[in-house]
């Protein structure tokens, strides 16, 4: 009896201690990354464990973050799109294996090979290079029909915008409703979500207007030593891909309901979270609108957006969901994983291999240090890196490296020849986080790639 009592007291004490540690972690990240406001929610096996606000939703009015503060979720909107799609599948209004020619009579022959599931998992082959066209759903669909495919459907995964505009058109055709009404009727109304919706922001020449949303957080961007109010116009055409506002309270209620089986049947929920197989037999990089990967060796799904205005991590096997919402545009999605660190089992140690080219590792470490300091030496980089990699390292990449702190230890876990150069994967222990990074050089020894990757 005494052993049971001691164990019970230990468990009771553990929850407040963990909450205090999470508070310390979040506040430290806010300080080093200049985040004005954060909302964190944790859901465990259908029960909302905590919903907490930190800092300010609006620096101009000193408005504090609360459970009902509405944050821009950006690309994490796709969590709602995936859920709404599966609700329509359960209602027999469409099938995931239905091909696009069933919804668009004027579709080109190539669309007979593209399924609804491939749209939702970013494996359709539709191009994002559509040329000039009117900014509405119908015109975007017509432009997508005219554009050649970027790759054969079902052969690879490429995260893109067109997939979700066409997916929205399909969902609106079978329901006779626009995407906002679909979200309302299929998700928000059944669960009583009061803080979730769109602002319908529009640009009229130099003027921008939007619906007023109570308790909306202002977005900020820290750059060159100062905080600025920042905004990005999420056009209505892309509302299935980004632009939804929501709160930590609503997200927590949503995932608690999913855990309890109140929104989707178990089979539909499993399908939602499972990446379909590509034609090669390998899994796609996305499930049904949700990103998929692993963390601490545990399979995870969710999505981030903005890139870290919203950051959602769900580990089904652990019964854990972490919701992290921020109003700092210049930040990298780290908070959800950081909070999950307090709940998940310890990560397995990476299997290091002998480093027979330590000079390459030194080159990589120097590049990370320069990027973190905001002093990137562009002469180190290949010409092909100037369009995507270098701008990343000078902006969001720098914000990421500041957030995780200096490099402490490096382990080489993969090394191969690649296009005359080398491609390597490292497990890197930064001061505040272990991450996996890809580093590649070209035949001339210039840096061709340097970016974070998943565990697997």
Automatic annotation (TrEMBL):
Coiled coil: none annotated. It comes from the Bacteria. One of its GO terms (molecular function) is hydrolase activity. The keyword Signal applies. Gene3D superfamilies: DD-peptidase/beta-lactamase superfamily. Keywords: Hydrolase, Signal. This is Class A beta-lactamase-related serine hydrolase. It comes from Sphingomonas naasensis. Residues 1-19 form the signal peptide.
């Amino acid at each position: 009896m005494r052993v049971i009592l001691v164990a019970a007291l230990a468990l009771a004490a553990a929850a407040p201690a963990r909450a205090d540690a999470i508070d310390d972690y979040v506040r430290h990240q806010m300080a080093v990354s200049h985040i004005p406001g954060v909302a964190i929610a944790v859901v465990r096996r259908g029960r909302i464990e905590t919903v907490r606000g930190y800092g300010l939703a609006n620096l101009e009015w000193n408005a504090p973050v609360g459970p009902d503060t509405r944050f821009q979720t950006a690309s994490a909107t796709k969590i709602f799109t995936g859920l709404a799609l599966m609700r329509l599948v359960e209602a027999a209004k469409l099938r995931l294996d239905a091909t696009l020619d069933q919804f668009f009579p004027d579709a080109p022959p190539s669309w007979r090979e593209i399924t609804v599931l491939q749209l939702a998992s970013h494996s359709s082959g539709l191009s994002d290079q559509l040329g000039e066209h009117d900014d509405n759903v119908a015109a975007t669909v017509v432009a997508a029909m005219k554009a050649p495919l970027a790759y054969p459907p079902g052969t690879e995964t490429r995260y893109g915008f067109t997939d979700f505009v066409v997916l929205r058109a399909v969902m609106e055709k079978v329901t006779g409703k626009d995407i906002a009404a679909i979200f309302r009727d299929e998700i928000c109304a059944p669960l009583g979500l009061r803080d979730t919706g769109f602002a319908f922001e529009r640009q009229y020449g130099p003027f921008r207007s939007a619906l007023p949303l109570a308790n909306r957080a202002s977005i900020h961007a820290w750059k060159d030593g100062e905080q600025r109010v920042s905004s990005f116009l999420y056009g209505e055409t892309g509302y299935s891909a980004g632009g939804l506002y929501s709160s930590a309270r609503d997200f927590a209620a949503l995932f608690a309901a999913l855990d309890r089986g109140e929104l989707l049947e178990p089979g539909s929920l499993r399908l939602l979270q499972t990446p379909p197989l590509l034609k090669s037999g390998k899994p796609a990089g996305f499930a049904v609108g949700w990103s998929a990967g692993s963390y601490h060796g545990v399979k995870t799904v969710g999505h981030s957006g903005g890139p870290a205005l919203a950051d959602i991590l769900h580990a089904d096997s652990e019964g854990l969901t972490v919701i992290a919402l921020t109003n700092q545009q210049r930040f990298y999605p780290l908070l959800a994983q950081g909070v999950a660190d307090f709940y998940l089992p310890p990560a397995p140690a990476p299997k290091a291999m002998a480093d027979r080219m330590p000079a390459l590792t030194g080159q990589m470490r120097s590049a990370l240090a320069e990027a973190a300091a905001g002093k990137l030496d562009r002469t180190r980089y290949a010409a092909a890196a100037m369009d995507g990699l270098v701008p990343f390292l000078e902006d969001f990449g720098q914000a990421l490296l500041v957030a995780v702190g200096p490099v402490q230890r490096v382990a080489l876990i993969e090394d191969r020849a690649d296009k005359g150069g080398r491609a390597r994967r490292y497990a890197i222990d930064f001061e505040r986080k272990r991450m996996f990074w890809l580093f590649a050089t070209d035949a001339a020894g210039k840096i061709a790639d340097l970016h974070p990757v998943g565990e697997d």
